[in-house]
Amino acid sequence: MKFTLEYPSDVPHAHPSLFTGAALAQISHRAEISGFEAVCLADHPAPSAKWYRNGGHDTFEPVVALAFAAAATTSLKLMTNLLVLPFRNPYLATKELTTLDTLSGGRLIAGVGAGYLRSEFAALGVDFARRSELFDEAIVAMCSIWRDPSTPFVGADFAATGEMRLQRPVQSPHPPVWIGGNSAAARRRVTQFGSGWCPVIADPGVSDAIRTSAIDGVEAFGAAVDALGDQLERVGRSLSEIEIQVEAPTVDLDDAASVARWHRDVDRLREAGATSLCVHADARSLAAAEEFIDGCRELIARSRRARGPE
Hints:
Elements: E1 2-6, H1 21-33, E2 38-41, H2 49-53, H3 62-71, E3 77-84, H4 90-103, E4 108-113, H5 118-124, H6 131-147, E5 177-180, H7 184-193, E6 196-198, H8 204-209, H9 218-234, E7 243-247, H10 256-272, E8 276-280, H11 286-307
Parallel strand pairs: 1-2, 1-8, 2-3, 3-4, 4-5, 5-6, 6-7, 7-8
Helix pairs in contact: 1-3, 1-11, 3-4, 4-6, 7-9, 9-10
């Protein structure tokens, strides 16, 4: 099992001390030495006050912040979780991600999603009703530009009109693309383009709020993983090629019963098909976040000892 740390600006009322470059550097470095595989940030360029009051959050722009994290670390992977492709022209998105992969020496994981906040689409001037269409177009364009950067790509609303001159990313043929969402369409995109899948295990109410199909427990998650495996086999691929990341269970590090329950829950998720867990740190202060990350070191080490080398 691998572990990704969600930078702790991902909750309402995250402490102001977390919104500095020094904090980002400290937490990224601490995650690296504590055994985390990656650090990730969400993408919310225009969050509304209404969404924030209902449990949403503000955060750094992910590509910029991850570049800062790259400078403070040496091996930690850098994940967008998830970059909303319909918000961006595919050439701009590809340039941003290629730059991050280059500056980090090939540590980018390009987690991408279709987005779900109607108000955010409106603020950015993007037609919410076209988000699925724009997402599909953007994935095709991004992978095409990475694989063959000189050949122009033409989309519904943009067109490169002649031979292009673009830098390739460090990772070949391109950085791993992890796709978010629970739907059959999300699994189709993983089958066609993905190195990873980021479903959400949540009750129907939460799933409705983020506009995706419900996967409401570990059994349902396991069934969805099996369905993805069947889809992959039909196109000559294997489930072993795909990283599958879900949110980690919550844990109180000072409560032995909570820690024991966490290990049991992690084992269940692993058995159902998860290969990576996204951990949410304590966001009450920089010191609380650092203490939590330090405490995760033993959780991660014990989880790996229990299963042997990955």
